[in-house]
Write a structure and sequence with these properties.
Two copies of one chain form a homodimer. The longest helix of chain A is centred in the C-terminal third of the chain and has 16 residues. Chain A starts with a strand and ends in a 6-residue tail after the last helix. Chain A has a nine-stranded mixed beta sheet with strand order 6-5-1-9-10-11-12-13-14, with helices on both faces. Chain A is globular and about 55 Å long. Chain A has a single domain, classed as 3-Layer(aba) Sandwich (UDP-N-acetylmuramoyl-L-alanine:D-glutamate ligase), CATH 3.40.1190. By secondary structure, chain A is of the alpha/beta class. In chain A, helix 3 crosses helix 11, helix 9 packs across helix 10 and helix 11 packs antiparallel against helix 12. Chain A is built from 13 helices and 14 strands. At the A-B interface, helix 10 and strand 14 of A face helix 9 and strand 14 of B.
């Protein structure tokens, strides 16, 4: 098996800069949330950022970075442009040990980015310009690579790009033909709200595995209570990996159900990326023959490392962390 | 149906008095735990208590008091002596609206009591003298009343009294003959440690319902992880109602599983009796045709009321509380 996980997601470069509240007010940045912005505004904000730091980001790409840190092999499908940020993204993915072979766009919008203003108390105000990421098309789907990947992992955010759906459809068909597993992360409760019917259709017809946090799974089934969401999954044959913040996670597979506690964290610094790193650990376990409870434990471990520092990618080697936690005993 | 629940438990009078640390040291009272004491020590401590307050206690009796507060009917089987504390216990049970018809002992040890020294910070140091409670025998089992009770609820602490086992065996046989449900609360992790094999035998052969907190169910299956305990219940046909403190409860019945969140509590004052009142709410729901998720919610509601004040019995009408929480909609 060439790859444990192939992921399709938005290829974004995170651009971080320190800022104060006055900066947020001056530049009309909504504090603490994620706002979609256009190219003009992206270039204006970028110019205003003082000493910006760049790092490859994007939800599914973050998950693959975590998978590699656990010791897995990942293949990323996402679109950048052949520009400076695009090179930055590709270099960062390569440095992580990931395969990123999607052809770069030579025309159209610039490489997508997430301009993040970090205020002194650690709050992150995100401004996302999808840019080239929104131009992913069917020709970018490498069916051979998908045939060599145990799991195809898709970011729910992709549904925000209408023309990406054909590409996703092609990828799902290719992976299914090759007998591989299809996984979706619901990404965000608002995203679920926008594409609820489509996600339910995927769940019914295509998915082997769904990742969701409590708000997302409640949004999917339009219920106000976690238990009601759990009951709504009755009869579904796939694996649901549901995260519940400090309550840990619930893993359901048919009649098999596991409750895994969260790992203790001394101080929660920044929860950005917790779901991405949960998925990383879970997918590592699943593609290495581990039982579902241990998959959940690896996921919780990845999330616990992530929330103890700024940023959505691991700062330590997750494989060593997992070994210390006695989770690689198999 | 004459009664919703018949319970067998230790008939104890709680005797509470304020005390300071010097008092605990002077009278060799271990702070914050429950210690079994003998009759001599009970009378010495009782004499030393300043302005003691008395109230009927005992785990299963507390549960029935909660059941009545929810609007149910309860029948209590437990042994007191025909002495002042025995009268106090019987009066208190009657005032709660419970039926307590066990013949009082005319000889033998005095009525059992739990002498509780409450230190200024709210810590409870308990000293239990079982007394007459330890003399329950088969003649005290009223098979007719059990035949009229939907559920027989047994306190695990009863196993500390060797001669109570025959009485319990008779009660179980009578309830089973009448087609009623048998429920056991595991009471305490140390209690589980002492009678593990017997409790496992009961689970296998007699129980329809088991109540346990996280530590107790882990002790029963000798595992260190809640999920492992949950998996150990696989294949068991009964209902497991498992409490997890601030994580709420897990209700498992075959392949049906519910996760119910705890109700928020402004300030936890005293967790004594939380398990008793959880059982009260759960049993009320179960004996009133509610679904298992709502049974769990009623249990969590009862526990949340209990831990917000001193003492193991409800201070408000739980039926009104449940109505406000929209749990009596059926």
């Amino acid at each position: 098996m060439a790859y444990h996980v192939a992921a399709i997601g938005h290829a974004l470069v995170d651009v971080l800069a320190s800022a104060d509240d006055a900066f947020l007010l001056e530049h009309n940045i909504a504090k603490g949330v994620m706002t979609m912005i256009d190219e003009y505004r992206a270039s204006t904000l970028y110019a205003a950022f003082a000493a910006p730091q760049e790092a490859a980001g994007g939800s599914a790409a973050n998950t693959l970075a975590g998978l590699v840190s656990f010791g897995g092999k990942g293949y990323f499908i996402g679109k950048v442009k052949d520009d400076r940020l695009g090179t930055s993204f590709a270099d960062s993915m390569a440095a992580s040990g990931l395969t990123f072979a999607t052809t770069r766009a030579t025309s159209g919008p610039q490489t997508g980015c997430c301009l993040i203003a970090v205020t002194p108390e650690g709050e992150r105000s995100m401004n996302t310009f999808l840019g080239a990421a929104s131009t992913l098309h069917t020709a970018d789907i490498d069916e051979k690579a998908l045939g060599e990947s145990q799991v195809l992992y898709i970011e729910g955010y992709m549904w925000d790009v209408p023309n990406a759906k054909a590409a996703i459809g092609k990828a799902i068909a290719a992976s299914k033909r090759a007998g591989k597993k299809i996984a979706l992360t619901l990404s965000d409760p608002f995203c679920v709200g926008r594409y609820r019917e489509e996600f339910l259709g995927l769940l019914k017809n295509d998915l082997d595995l769904v990742f969701a946090n409590e708000e997302e799974i409640k949004a999917l089934f339009e219920v106000s209570d976690f238990d009601a969401a759990l009951q709504a999954l009755e009869g579904w044959k796939g694996i649901a990996a549901l995260t519940r913040s400090e309550k840990g996670c619930v893993v359901k597979h048919g009649n098999e159900l596991h409750l895994v506690d969260a790992y203790p964290v001394k101080k929660v610094i920044d929860t950005t990326g917790a779901g991405d790193q949960f998925a990383a650990g879970f997918l590592y376990g699943l593609t290495h023959g581990m039982n579902l409870a241990d998959c959940g434990r690896l996921g919780c471990l990845g999330a616990s490392e992530c929330i103890a520092h700024y940023g959505a990618r691991p700062e330590v080697n997750l494989r060593e962390l997992a070994a210390k936690a006695n989770l690689l005993r198999q």
